[in-house]
């Protein structure tokens, strides 16, 4: 009811309408950040004027009939679906990209994710490197990461889909994670050297881990398929923390970026209103 009342106000209607304006980027939201059923989360995204949504593991137990239903639900709200993760529950299952002994498991997960992606008409699958291995030199782990990424890229090429590698900070949110910065992520993308492998640049994670966000964006944008948005500290709405998002968005625009810009933060207030304001900030900064 609060969301409906918000959208009925002059400000709310203007924000939602502006979110649908044609732009060189595609606005999306990661569904884990929203509350409610899958249907309710789609409704929130649509009310906020988003173009698309990102899934993590919502699809894992879906039958073909449920997949078809989910596609219809999203289409009815004029929403695309743009990502799933290749290795769900990666912290508790042997699917590390760093361990040669787990390569077969990892590649099996990639194959299954690509099948789901084709059925859901999702263009991208997220790759997670995994936690640092004890007693294994970092460069050996990186070499295994490159090799597994190349093998996964061959599978993605056959499916005509894109893999996106996401670095995660290991200072706050993912203690022990190996690929912890987009600087290293960019090194990986360059060594793999396959058009079916791109970077997922999570601006929040990069700020926590390394800072220098705008400088790294300028270098990484040509190799980036998705930017994730959240402020620091707290992983909340852009504009509620230490990060200057108008400058960050302007920096992304200056690179000529064309791709997804995804809200992956926990809204402090009403989710639809929060997302609409975040997208307005993005569009105003871009303009």
Explain what the structure shows:
By secondary structure, the protein is α/β, with parallel strands linked by helices. The chain has one domain (24-286): TIM Barrel, CATH 3.20.20.150. Helices cover 46% and strands 13% of the residues. It contains eleven helices and eight strands. The chain has helices at residues 2-8, 10-19, 38-47, 64-76, 103-120, 138-159, 182-192, 203-209, 213-220, 245-254, 271-286; strands at residues 26-30, 52-54, 80-85, 124-127, 162-165, 197-202, 224-229, 260-263. An eight-stranded parallel β-barrel has the order 1-2-3-4-5-6-7-8, surrounded by six helices. Helix 1 crosses helix 2 (10-19), helix 5 packs parallel to helix 6 and helix 9 runs parallel beside helix 10. Mean pLDDT is 94; it is low at 1-19.
Please give the CATH class: Alpha Beta
Please give the CATH architecture: Alpha-Beta Barrel
Count of strand segments? 8
Biggest beta-sheet profile: 8 strands, parallel, barrel
Q: Kindly report the oligomeric state of this protein.
A: single chain
Overall number of domains: 1
- The neighbouring-strand order within the major sheet is 1-2-3-4-5-6-7-8
Report the average pLDDT across residues: 94
Count of helical regions: 11
Low-confidence sequence ranges: 1-19
What's the overall geometry? globular
| Strand coverage percent | 5-15%
Write down the secondary-structure element order. Answer: HHEHEHEHEHEHEHHEHEH
Q: Can you say what the CATH homologous superfamily is?
A: Divalent-metal-dependent TIM barrel enzymes
**Distance N to C terminus:** 32 Å
The helicity comes to 40-55%
Rg over CA atoms: 18 Å
Counting helices, strands and paired strands, the structural category is alpha/beta
CATH topology: TIM Barrel
């Amino acid at each position: 009811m609060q969301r409906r009342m918000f959208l009925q106000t002059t400000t709310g209607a203007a924000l939602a309408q502006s979110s649908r304006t044609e732009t060189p980027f595609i606005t999306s939201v990661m569904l884990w950040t929203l509350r409610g059923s899958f249907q309710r989360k789609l409704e929130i995204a649509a009310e906020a004027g988003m173009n698309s949504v990102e899934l993590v593991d919502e699809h894992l137990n879906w039958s073909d009939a449920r997949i078809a239903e989910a596609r219809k639900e999203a289409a009815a709200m004029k929403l695309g679906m743009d990502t799933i993760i290749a290795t769900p529950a990666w912290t508790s299952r042997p699917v590390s990209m760093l361990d040669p002994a787990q390569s077969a498991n990892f590649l099996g997960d990639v194959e299954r994710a690509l099948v789901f992606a084709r059925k859901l008409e999702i263009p991208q699958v997220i790759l997670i490197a995994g936690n640092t291995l004890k007693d294994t030199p970092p460069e050996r782990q990186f070499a295994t990461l490159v090799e597994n990424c190349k093998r996964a890229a061959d599978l993605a090429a056959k499916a005509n889909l894109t893999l996106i590698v996401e670095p995660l900070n290991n200072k706050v949110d993912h203690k022990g994670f190996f690929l912890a910065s987009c600087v290293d992520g960019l090194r990986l993308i360059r060594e793999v050297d396959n058009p079916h492998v791109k970077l997922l640049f999570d601006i929040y994670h990069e700020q926590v881990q390394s800072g220098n966000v705008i400088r790294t964006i300028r270098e990484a944008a040509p190799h980036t398929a998705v930017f994730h948005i959240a402020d620091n500290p707290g992983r909340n709405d852009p504009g509620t923390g230490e990060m200057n998002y108008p400058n960050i968005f302007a920096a992304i625009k200056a690179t000529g970026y064309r791709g997804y810009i995804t809200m992956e933060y926990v809204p402090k207030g009403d989710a639809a209103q929060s997302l609409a304001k975040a997208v307005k900030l993005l569009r105003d900064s871009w303009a």
